[in-house]
Amino acid sequence: MARFGDPSVVITDKLRSYIKPIRHLAPNADHRAHKGLNNLIEGAHQPTRKREKLMGRFKSPRQAQRFLDAHDQINVVFRPRRCRMSANAYRQTRSDAFNLWYGYARKMNA
């Protein structure tokens, strides 16, 4: 606070014990209590959370790790880092990945 001045907004989780210290330290600040509004770590796990919800929740950490290990290997093939390549290279990489996948699927069904 000494470096940047008084905050105009303070975001915390819904823990009630934050109310009095915030009123004391930043009386003019707007206090917003929200469960994850400023939680960057939780935001980074959003795709994992969506997959987890679709699967009806993982039953154990081991099951989650098994799924994520397998999914990560496939995800790397089908979702190359777009920021590091041109549009034409990206399209070609995606096309190669799908051709590879169709080839494996044909072998498995034959």
TrEMBL record:
* Organism superkingdom: Bacteria
Q: Which InterPro entries does its entry note?
A: DDE_dom, IS_Transposase
User: DDE domain location, by residue?
Assistant: 5-79
What PANTHER family does the database record attribute to this sequence? Answer: BLL1675 PROTEIN
- This one is known as Putative transposase
Q: What is the lineage of its organism?
A: Bacteria, Pseudomonadati, Pseudomonadota, Alphaproteobacteria, Rhodobacterales
